[in-house]
């Protein structure tokens, strides 16, 4: 199984798309891509989510499309059948983890406690979604687990915004940050894709500055 971080290939932001129609999903994904992100997560919280995944795959072949809010084995398979290139869940149970693993897709199952992290790690999963990040201890929690679970890296989501994304991304055990701050419901409802592109471009800029510093720690301290 390819690791999610490998698939994302350095893309530091993973915006969520919650959509009512496949066309709206394509328009949001195009606006996000225009702003500089190369991967999106369509959440299974609306009836058309699976169609939205397929629509983005065919309309925007250069954008990586994953499925989020996967909660059971049937959904994991449905997402794969719809064309999802990776899977994200908000929670972890042994059955859900096994079902996600069985799809063969890159994945980031959701965890918020050390025991859940250890369970996922025990099943061979070392890239996990930390959710809800802001309510589960935030960056101090991620720092605290670093020395315990040395191979595990995280995609924090839940309360991430332009104001705190660099705090998370600068941690050595964070490979991407995700969430809905780039696709706020009011902008989606208004069809204001220009504003979504602008929000995205600003967060991409912040992320890139942060990653440049992260990859050059010696230069920084010199
Ligand atoms: C998720 O599914 O990861 C969360 O809904 C993201 O949380 P946020 O809406 O606070 O970004």
TrEMBL record:
EC number: 4.1.2.14, 4.1.3.16
Family matches, as PROSITE patterns: ALDOLASE_KDPG_KHG_2 (PS00160)
Entry-linked SUPFAM superfamilies: Aldolase
Keywords attached to this entry: Carbohydrate metabolism, Lyase
Molecular-function GO terms, alphabetical: (R,S)-4-hydroxy-2-oxoglutarate aldolase activity; 2-dehydro-3-deoxy-phosphogluconate aldolase activity
Pfam families attached to this UniProt entry: Aldolase
Pathway where it operates: Carbohydrate acid metabolism
Enzyme class, spelled out: lyase
Family the UniProt entry places it in: Belongs to the KHG/KDPG aldolase family.
PANTHER family: 2-DEHYDRO-3-DEOXY-6-PHOSPHOGALACTONATE ALDOLASE-RELATED, 2-KETO-3-DEOXY-6-PHOSPHOGLUCONATE ALDOLASE
Record text on subunit structure and interactions: Homotrimer.
Protein name: Bifunctional 4-hydroxy-2-oxoglutarate aldolase/2-dehydro-3-deoxy-phosphogluconate aldolase
């Amino acid at each position: 199984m390819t690791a999610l971080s490998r698939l994302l290939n350095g893309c530091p932001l993973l915006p969520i798309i919650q959509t009512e129609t496949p066309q709206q999903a394509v328009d949001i994904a195009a606006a996000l891509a225009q702003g500089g992100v190369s991967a999106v997560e369509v959440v299974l919280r609306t009836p058309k989510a699976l169609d939205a995944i397929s629509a983005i795959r065919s309309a925007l072949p250069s954008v990586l499309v994953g499925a989020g809010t996967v909660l059971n084995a049937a959904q994991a398979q449905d997402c794969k059948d719809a064309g999802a290139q990776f899977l994200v869940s908000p929670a972890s149970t042994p059955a859900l983890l096994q079902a996600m693993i069985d799809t063969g897709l890159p994945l980031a199952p959701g965890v918020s406690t050390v025991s859940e992290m250890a369970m996922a790690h025990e099943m061979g999963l070392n890239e996990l979604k930390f959710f809800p990040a802001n309510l589960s201890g935030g960056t101090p929690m991620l720092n605290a687990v670093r020395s315990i679970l040395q191979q595990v890296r995280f995609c924090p989501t839940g309360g991430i915004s332009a104001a705190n994304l660099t705090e998370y991304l600068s941690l050595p055990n964070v490979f991407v940050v995700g969430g809905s701050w780039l696709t706020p419901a009011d902008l989606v409802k208004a069809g204001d894709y220009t504003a979504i592109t602008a929000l995205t471009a600003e967060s991409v800029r912040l992320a890139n500055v942060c990653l440049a510093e992260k990859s050059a720690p010696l230069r920084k301290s010199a």
